[in-house]
Amino acid sequence: MLYTETTKTLLIVYHSMTGGTRQMVEAAARGAALEPAIRTRLLPARAADASDLLEADGYIFGTPENLAAIAGLMKDFFDRTYYPALDRINGRPYATLICAGSDGHNAARQVERIATGWRLKAIAEPLIVCTHAQTPKAILAPKVIRPDDLKRCEELGAALAVGMSIGMF
After folding, report:
1. Does 35 fall in a domain?
2. Is residue 115 scored above 80 in pLDDT?
3. Distance between CA atoms of 73 and 57, rounded to whole angstroms?
4. Do 30 and 154 touch, CB atoms closer than 8 A?
5. How many angstroms separate the first and last alpha carbons of the chain?
6. Calpha distance 100→81 (Å, rounded)
7. Hey, is 149 helix, strand or coil?
8. Is residue 138 part of a domain?
9. How far does CA 125 lie from the centroid of its chain?
10. Is residue 161 part of a domain?
11. What's the pLDDT at 79?
């Protein structure tokens, strides 16, 4: 793709230990890639920094819910980038993807609180995929996200990209 002055960047930052969240963010990236005016960057949380946030025009944050909270490496990403980005990314759009064993809402609330501090604009309710993993063995096992859930992730990525492209967000 040839990037032009009007190309906008969608940054997708995620952590995935068992593959579920990675499948979700990859689906969102596929959806976003359908919009030619959007450049999509998919970065693991450990590799992303404040400069990545500052250079992007919109965001998707993807995390598993671990012990009723965002994953530690996502927390680390937010800790490292929060103050360097504060008051510098106001008003930009974002969406959240959560891969949870049973609930996911507390992790979603944590991301929402951080995004509120950054004054980001949520473009949709957090998309939570529940894997129903409840035993240690199931929790640690590689995940396979259902096609209908991946379709929802892809649609969210596409919606954010189109909205960014037309200046809706």
Report:
1. yes
2. yes
3. 23
4. yes
5. 23
6. 24
7. helix
8. yes
9. 12
10. yes
11. 98
Indicate the length of the chain as a whole number: 169
- Give the CATH number of the domain where residue 82 resides: 3.40.50.360
State the total domains in the chain.
1
**Three-state secondary-structure class, residue 133:** coil
Two structure tokens written together for 121 = 């604009």
Instruction: Print the SS3 string covering 109-149.
Output: HHHHHHHHHCCCEECCCCEEEECCCCCHHHHHCCCCCCHHH
Task: Answer whether residue 1 shows pLDDT above 60.
Answer: no
Q: Would 2 be classed as within a structural domain?
A: no
Quick: pLDDT tens for 120-157. Answer: 999 999 999 999 999 999 999 999 999 999 999 999 99
Q: Which amino acid is at 147?
A: P
pTM above 0.90, yes or no: yes
Q: Sign of the C-alpha dihedral, residues 89, 95, 99, 101?
A: positive
Half-sphere exposure of 103 (CA within 13 A, CB side): 10
